[in-house]
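## Example record

The block below lists the input lines for one assembly entry, exactly as stored, with component labels intact.
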Amino acid sequence: MASLSFSIATSAFDPGLVPTEARNPGTPAFREAVNAFLQNEFKEFGGTATIRVDDRNISVVWDPEAKQLNPLVPIVQKLQQGKQAEGIQLLELLLSSRPDDPGVLYNLGVALSDVGRLERAEICLRRAVVMNPSDANIRVALGVALGRLDKDEEAGKVLQTAIAQDAKNPWAHRNLAAMLMKAAKPDEAISHYEAATQIQPGDQIAWLGLAEACRLTGRTKAAEDAYRSAIEIDPSSDLAEKARAGSNALAQTGFDNVKNSLPRQDAVQYCLDALQTISKMSATNVQKLALDLAMAGRSGLEVHNPNSRYRVKGLQGEFSGLAMVCFLYVVMQQIAPGADVGMDLSQEYQQAKQLFDRPKS
Amino acid sequence: MSLSETTRSVLRLVEERSGIPVHVEPDPNLPGTILAKVVMARENLLLHRVFYRPNSTTPPDYLICQQAGFILRFFAVPADRRFDFAASDAGTKAVEELVKVHPVAKMLPPQALPQLTTMLRDGLLSHLRSIPLGMRVDRWLAAEFPDLIPLQKQSILRQLEDSAVTLAPQHRQTAPKLIFDATESISAAFAAYWARRLNQPQAVLPFKSAGYLHSGEILLDIWENTPDDAANDRLIVDQWAEKLGIAGWQQWVPYSTPR
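Predicted structure tokens for the full assembly:
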């Protein structure tokens, strides 16, 4: 067929071709309806139709030779670029010409769910499940939307079904684990988080979730490992910051349990060592050391593992996780007294300071 | 210029049936989108003159044969039933009135209005006659000279493209509604006819979108339900004019045979 190109004023468009409620030029409904009408007309011709409807003109260029690209691809790219509103508008348009397309329904449902339009998201995703019941990803998205709507019981069932359909679906495991966490069942969540991290080791959210579940159930070592994994995946991300905060909270909790309101003498000794070391350093070098210690601690420090070993620029030898935190605490007290390093070592520091300041006999 | 054997045959046919020689010449200065035209012999003009716009990529044979087809159709009826098509005084007056009240009149100097009136009037009336009769000629050419079909298709597709362009807002704004609507309804009839014949269904979409397909189909019904006899050509044109609300804008003037 021959190519086609034309342009008409919006006011010249035959209103009888669109639904009654969409006949007012200049309205979004009109634009969407005209676009949908033209897309539908070209559907049978193949090729590629480029349709532009604005408040004044309707422009159409149709190329019968151009390969029919999957229109979902550029739309999904827009969503990935954070252009949610535009992506949703395009998906709604696409849906008007493909009302039963599970791919369109799924992507639209996910996008709507992500921007909080949950009721519409639920409708789209339920429809997508009906149109393609064998796709576990669609059920996962529905489960997530239902969870966001606080329909937790049904969300859990939908996610269980997704896992039954596809036991190696990491999203199904991770989201079911999240639902179990929400239901205060961290014990049950752990196995699903573990499955998610095994299937997809780069899933930072799953590692963080696993760490939290382990922390809540007293699995300190496993929690520390999981926090560290979450940090290592992308150390500069917000999730890594959350993991650091969790790791610090875990360390503080464990530390408090151990010291039982009395200063830990190993920590006192580490603080004393630190005071002695930095007393021989210039102020500039102390500042550099503070930076190096902080950087070394960005991936987490295993304060409960006496076998952990760390090296840091500016200090000779290897240090345990607890020794590193003590060093950091002491250095920070020199630079910025009262600074929070994530662990309260004030009693140990004070005791070490007294020992350090005591006149040498 | 080397014409195909088919074209030579058609031209010979014209000379035999009309008894008048045909002169074919290129004219790169044909106005607007006109690709070819014919000036039929009359009074002191003792030959038919066929002009075509030369194009280095496409041979002119189809364009020449189509104009020859118009001559053949004209001479297919007895001499006393041959009429030239022209604008009537009523048509001229009607167009003048429409132009006067149209916003475009305020944007032009007064001395330009008669020229605009003539241009709009002649453009519409030429369309009113050439489209229905041209479709008759084209059908005959395709049936009698199938080797012309590829060039015919090429030319028709170009005309379809050109006619879709006329729907653009800038054209709509510069023509009175009655004239614009009539022109586009005729174009829609043309598009509907060729969309079916050439299996190019997309060709009607511009006219459908702009609301002219229905009126175009009505015109096409008239065309299809009128027997394909050159004696009915005036009838088709008059019926189309009536449907378009421009009845009486045209007149049929007795043809002056060459002396």
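Chain B has two domains: 5-74, 83-254. The longest strand of chain B covers residues 22-26.
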